[in-house]
Amino acid sequence: MPASPASPWISPAVARLRTANPYVVDIAVAVLVLFAASLQWIFPDEGDDRLTWQGFLLGAGTALPLVWRRRAPFLAACGVSVFTPAMAVYHAPPPDIMYAGLVVLYTMAAVGRPWQRRVMLVGWLAGVALTMTHKEDAEPFEYAFQLLSCVSAYGFGVLSRLQRAYTAALEDRARRLERERAADTARAAARERAGIARDMHDILAHAVSLMVVQAEAGPVVVRSDPERAEGAFDAIAGAGRDAMVQLRRILGVLKEEPLNGSSDRLPQPGVAALTGLVRQVGDTTGLRIELRHTGEPRPLHRDTEVAAYRVVQEALTNTVKHAYASCARVELDWTEAELTLTVTDDGRGPADTAPGGGGSAGGHGLIGIRERAAACGGTARTEPGRDGGFRVVVRLPVAGDRQVTPG
Known about the structure:
Layout: H1 12-19, H2 22-42, H3 53-63, H4 73-90, H5 99-111, H6 114-132, H7 140-221, H8 226-251, H9 274-285, E1 288-294, H10 302-323, E2 327-334, E3 338-345, H11 364-375, E4 379-384, E5 390-397
């Protein structure tokens, strides 16, 4: 029977005893029981018999089975149950306290099977009553004392068994909670990695698209219009710097210790930053972009703020990369329940895009738009524009009634 971990309210001495080698403890218990059982005849009262070799052997027979009380509890209890009555019958009067019997009753109540516990309890109560009849002039209180001793030992064993079961239940619950926390941590880490991957895709795709557009235009104007070519190179450098700042901001959360400069870990952009995004894309690519707000702006959760910005960023990136458009329109329609983002261009829409479908333009970008919207409890769809071109419509839930200042 393995020792249970010590509870916080158990004294250090008891805790050390519970964690000690069980065989050493049981041998010590057997020796103490034999010594205690022999005291009555080593130091007899007037009229009592002194200890004999036969009596000592019978006493040893009650104590020796206790060495195996945890390896074979029922067999040890049976051995003690045989030698204790023999010892009581041989000695007249019988022993004052049946030490070995109390130990096996405690042990059986603590670790025995249900039927074994019942057999031992009933058998010992009956045996005590019969054994006391061999004692001449036995007083009623002596019967009560012996019977109460057996019941008390059995009761302490029951309490020990219940305490171990309670401790085991607590440990099992702690293990399950630990596994659940580990699983929650793993899921949170997976979500965080997926979010970082989407952000990196959006940032890099947007920056690289702007740089590619400017780089392709550079050789055409470098000889005919040097000032315009210089502006293109400045736009390339600006897009690269902006991408690096945003990447440091995102990847900073992966480091164990905070960065020295808090500016590298500023909050990610939200709806208020859309004005700057539209201006940057228009100035860099020459694409005419119109930004419209309708309705009363409402607060958004932080994740929804970032999603709104990234959705518009990805839609404009696809417009620059795939649509060959001359103008685009970004619309923010606020209602009490949701924000509807619509990005429309006049370029060539994807030939295989059906209304409500995902299309192939932008590849993983459009998939990322739908994933971002779904992660915030919203929806996204892509479809051809009414007058040609391509349109992205995203609906995101709002957070409350407090007004916010639009970007």
